[in-house]
Automatic annotation (TrEMBL), chain A:
CDD domains: ABC_HisP_GlnQ (cd03262). This is ABC-type polar-amino-acid transporter. One of its GO terms (cellular component) is plasma membrane. The lineage of its organism: Bacteria, Bacillati, Actinomycetota, Actinomycetes, Micromonosporales. It comes from the Bacteria. Its EC number is 7.4.2.1. Signal peptide: none annotated. PANTHER family: AMINO ACID IMPORT ATP-BINDING PROTEIN, GLUTAMATE_ASPARTATE IMPORT ATP-BINDING PROTEIN GLTL. Keywords: Amino-acid transport, ATP-binding, Cell membrane, Membrane, Nucleotide-binding, Transport. Residues 4-238 form the ABC transporter domain. It holds the Pfam family ABC_tran. Belongs to the ABC transporter superfamily. It catalyses: a polar amino acid(out) + ATP + H2O = a polar amino acid(in) + ADP + phosphate + H(+). GO terms for molecular function: ATP binding; ATP hydrolysis activity; ATPase-coupled polar amino acid-transporter activity.
UniProtKB/TrEMBL annotation, chain B:
Belongs to the binding-protein-dependent transport system permease family. GO terms for biological process: amino acid transport. Pfam families: BPD_transp_1. GO terms for cellular component: ATP-binding cassette (ABC) transporter complex. The lineage of its organism: Bacteria, Bacillati, Actinomycetota, Actinomycetes, Micromonosporales. This is Amino acid ABC transporter permease. It is a multi-pass membrane protein. Its main location: membrane. Keywords: Amino-acid transport, Cell membrane, Membrane, Transmembrane, Transmembrane helix, Transport. Residues 58-253 form the ABC transmembrane type-1 domain. One of its GO terms (molecular function) is transmembrane transporter activity. It is found in: Cell membrane. The chain crosses the membrane at residues 62-82, 94-117, 235-256.
């Protein structure tokens, strides 16, 4: 059974159709990286998986459960799906330890001792065991994002969603977050990652999905998508992202040297 | 000699101080301090007001304030949540309530509670007597103001906080209680403290409900003493006792705002 199975997914915001018929499945243990230009619908696709956005039509199954079914207990499904946001979204009024324990205690009803032990394990996993008593505002962006990952992992998810997890970080802090994510992938976690980090996608992904304008343009193993893309739109996007200094004036319609 | 810009600014500033100081001096000198202190600062009359001024009047002022604040905060929170609800009739009700009670004078609402509630429910009394009437009478108005303050506080908590909580499997209610509201309250502590100060002063209106010697508060107490002694000294005593409550609260607001400023 696929971990995620999306078929003919459409999503509109008012008149704007952001997703125009998406079919995608993610198998257990797969790391799928979604790339594409801003506004292509990548984040919306990710947010539909745990119903942070309500799809306009189509179906999404997570571990066999139809989340688009109105009778679906979405809170129960979400317990099994960890999510990491671009803006971290740590709870500012709670310490790092409380951030990692609150859902364990309130949702999974674990005892204080057990939740604390699991929090300590997961903070250790992301290398922040000694920050348990700090408040989020006292941490760097990279540390906050690692806490956010630990918070999601503490719920024992079978699937992790990452929504541009490094886009809000200073460049020198990106590496520490990617290192944690690479470790997770190596442990066999099923991951759906929206990212602009092409090097990460190329190295860690089992499959790369290129989206543009609300549709999946092309997908395949990273070596194929990056090495020999079949679609013109993919080639142009990769050229602009991977070699930004070599985008020529004529490509963008500028006439500076005339 | 030509003035440098700096010298000129300095002269203008000093001239401003002098004019300001002279204006105050002129007002002070013009007043008849002899008869003023004769009337307003009669030591014997002031002393005669104690200890009741503190044990009864000040105490009741504080009790009325706290009761109305607790009632207003509770009802205000419910109204704020109704205003943010996705259910249209709730939003309508909350908006209508807030617009109504923000637009009416506290005195009028107190009168209406004092006269209207016994007529509406003739077989039962408001629990707590005058204390109950005051709680409702002042609390209804306070709730309208606090609802708006709380709504602003809830909306100031970033949307991502609720999303992160829901993503962890919390229900909407659980996420509000554990994640959003605690952060919203932190944001609104300074404006809520202002509401307490306003409420403290509004307790001066409760005399319209007909208070007795045991339920009297500061303003009515001062007014009664003024009538029996035919001297306005009690007003000064009452004023000072109000400041005993409100000045520390103002300090609290300032300290909280400084702290909030540092955290940003």
């Amino acid at each position: 059974m696929s971990t995620i199975e999306i078929s003919d997914l459409h999503k509109s915001f008012g008149k704007l159709e952001v997703l125009r018929g998406i079919d995608l499945s993610v198998e257990p243990g797969e790391v799928v990286c979604v790339i594409g230009p801003s506004g292509s619908g990548k984040s919306t696709l990710l947010r539909c998986v745990n119903l942070l956005e309500e799809p306009t039509s189509g179906s999404i199954r997570v571990a066999g459960v139809e989340v688009t079914d109105p009778d679906c207990d979405i809170d129960a499904v979400r317990r099994g799906i960890g999510m990491v946001f671009q803006q971290f979204n740590l709870f500012g009024h709670l310490t790092v330890r409380e951030n990692v324990t609150i859902a364990q205690r309130r949702v999974l009803k674990r005892s204080r001792a057990e939740a604390g032990r699991i929090a300590a394990e997961n903070l250790d996993r992301v290398g922040l065991a000694e920050k348990a008593d700090s408040y989020p505002a006292q941490l760097s962006g990279g540390q906050q994002q690692r806490v956010a990952i630990a918070r999601a992992l503490a719920m024992d998810p079978q699937l992790m969603l990452f929504d541009e997890p490094t886009s809000a970080l200073d460049p020198e802090l990106v590496g520490e977050v990617l290192a944690v994510m690479r470790g997770l992938a190596a442990e066999g976690m099923t991951m759906l990652v929206v990212t602009h980090e092409m090097a990460f996608a190329r190295e860690v992904a089992s499959r790369v999905v290129f989206m543009d304008d609300g549709v999946i343009v092309e997908q395949g193993p990273p070596a194929e998508v990056f090495g020999s893309p079949t679609e013109e739109r993919t080639r142009e996007f990769l050229h602009r992202v991977l070699e930004p200094a070599r985008v020529s004036e004529s490509e963008i319609g500028a006439h500076l040297s005339e | 000699m030509k003035l440098t810009p700096r010298r000129r600014r300095r002269i203008i500033r000093v001239a401003g101080y002098v004019v300001f100081g002279l204006a105050i001096l002129a007002v002070v000198a013009a007043a008849d301090w002899g008869s003023l202190s004769e009337a307003f600062f009669r030591r014997d009359i002031a002393q005669g007001m104690f200890p009741e001024a503190i044990t009864v009047a000040l105490r009741n002022t504080i009790v009325y304030t706290l009761l109305a604040f607790a009632f207003g905060l509770t009802v205000g929170l419910v109204l704020a949540l109704m205003r943010l609800s996705s259910i249209l009739p709730y939003r309508w009700f909350a908006t209508a309530y807030i617009e109504l009670f923000r637009g009416l004078p506290s005195l009028l609402v107190l009168f209406m509670v004092g006269y209207g509630v016994p007529l509406a429910f003739p077989d039962r009394e408001i629990p707590g007597g005058v204390y109950g009437s005051v709680t409702i009478g002042l609390g209804l108005t306070a709730a309208a103001y606090m609802a708006e303050t709380l709504r602003a506080g809830i909306q100031a908590v970033p949307k991502g906080q609720l999303e992160a909580a829901r993503t962890l499997g919390m229900s909407h209610t659980r996420a509000m209680v554990s994640i959003v509201l605690p952060q919203a309250f932190r944001i609104v502590i300074p404006p809520l403290t202002n509401e307490i100060i306003l409420l403290t002063k509004d307790t001066s209106l409760v005399y319209v409900l007909g208070v007795t010697s045991s339920t009297i508060e500061l303003t009515k107490f001062a007014g009664d003493t003024l009538n029996t002694r035919v001297n306005p000294t009690p007003l000064v005593v009452a004023g000072l006792l109000y400041l005993v409550i409100t000045l520390p609260l103002s300090q609290v607001v300032r300290a909280l705002e400084r702290r909030a400023g540092r955290e940003r």
